[in-house]
Amino acid sequence: MGSFFKLANASVPRKSFLIGSCVIVGVATCLTLRYYWKRRSRKYYKSVEETCAVGGKRILVLGLDDAGKSSLLLHLSRPDATSTQPPPTEGFNVVCINSENGSSLNFWELGGSETVRPYWPNFLQDTSVLVYMVNSADDQRLRSSAHEFRRILQDERLKNVPILVLANKQDLPGAKSVEDISTTLGLDELKQLNFNVHILPLQMPSDSSCRSTVAEAKHKILQLSRGCSPILSL
User: What is the mean pLDDT of residues 141-169?
Assistant: First the structure.
């Protein structure tokens, strides 16, 4: 019996050691990933600055995965694009759209998966307009989308940034209306807190008759990025 208690007592430090080791490995992994994302974002900032026009407006595009962010950038940069679905963005993607007079909008699209969302705050600096996309037909994750939206708006760097919510996939069965999306995201409350927030319906074009919603979104983004100044067409 005495040997049994000695063995049991000896196993306690071993278990504590194993648990402690797992915690240390987990923390080290998280810190390494965070460091990697910061280094990667800084490196990409420099690359984009060399590629895009100097002084371009920075448009940050956020939303859960499957909200349609990549599709929006595809149709903004290629108005004649068909309904081909681009692959999901695993990390981040940058598309520079230049106007005829040389000015540019630099769209930064971040992946919306659970593993990427914690890194959204690393990309908030120097944002001219925040575009937040919602899958109107994904009723099960609508509240999760609203939670992520309100969470990111707690960052002081977005306090004075114009916000455009795009209620995407309005053409799908069961899609929530713009009014329902606005209520779930609490846009009226945000307006009372002096957020410059707007919302538009959106659906990706399957033929020429559907392109008006993308054009309206582009027009609104230009308007918000330029304040009250005249709007220039892309």
Answer: 97
